[in-house]
Amino acid sequence: MTLISILVALALEYVLGALDHLRNWSWYDRWLTWLEQRSGERHFWDGPGGVLVSIGLPLAGLAVFGHALADASVIFVFALGTFIFLYSLGADLNSQLDRYTAALHADDDNTIALVEEQLQVPNVLGQSGVERMLRSVFIRSHEQLFGVVFWFIALGMVGGLLFAMSLRLRRRVGESNTAFADASRRLHGILSWPSSRAEALGFALAGNLVDAVDGWHKADDGSSEANDPVLCAAGLSSLSLGKSGAGEADNTAIATQVEEVQALINRTLLVWLTILGIMTIGGWLT
Fold first, then answer.
1. Could you read off the pLDDT of 85-103 as tens digits, one per residue?
2. Is residue 286 part of a domain?
3. 150, 100 in Cβ contact below 8 A?
4. Does residue 16 lie within any of the structural domains?
5. How far apart are CA 90 and CA 5, in angstroms?
6. Is 280 exposed, middle or buried (0-12, 13-18, 19+ CB in 10 A)?
7. pTM exceeding 0.85
8. How far is CA 238 from CA 136, 211, 264, 276, in A?
9. Is residue 190 part of a domain?
10. Apex CA 245: angle with CA 240 and CA 247, to 5°?
11. Which tens digits make up the pLDDT trace of 214-223?
12. Count of structural domains within the chain
């Protein structure tokens, strides 16, 4: 049922187009604001306790609701799980990249800048513009898709929503130096550790295995701080972009590299779904 929920959700987004308008997180922002107003002065709030309450209570409510639906019909649980998975996904990356490459070919600077803003392309000294873009695509692929898939497989709909909420909370705290912010970043780092490396393995299987594994090992120091570097190193190396340096290029060349990365991400998703299918047939996944 896990695999079917994932396939149905992905098929719905493919057939109906990006469903980003359904992913309204204003309820969670209001929930966090309400908690901060009432608990911000209490000692337990500024640390792991505050993060536990911020994320744990909504997840507990979902678990209780899911259990109640299970008593009525398994169909209801399936529908809820599929919806939660679809809701937990981030913005549709394929749609974003299709818009970006079309804008590159058309030299549409406004759309190029808009998509780069949506993908949160940073300004990093020592990295070319195209390299920053490609790295951002790999990171967003994990945040908007693979991280949710991994934890949905591991813990069901509670796991998928857990990852999405941890990401939302980490973005909310930003670079704050409070204990609450540190705990938020630590939680997301812990959740991202196994899923980022599973995605890196998928890049290796879907691309150049030897180069991807070599790039992964060079970037991985075993800590959660290496999550994003591992993804980027494995992804770029699997396409041999790590060796060539992904230097500055004209818009057509940049579009070609982005399309290569997009194809790699889609192949990696197929690798994951194939493995999930084998696990389901073998009885290791329900």
1. 999 999 999 999 999 999 9
2. no
3. no
4. yes
5. 17
6. middle
7. yes
8. 16, 6, 9, 22
9. yes
10. 125
11. 999 999 999 9
12. 1
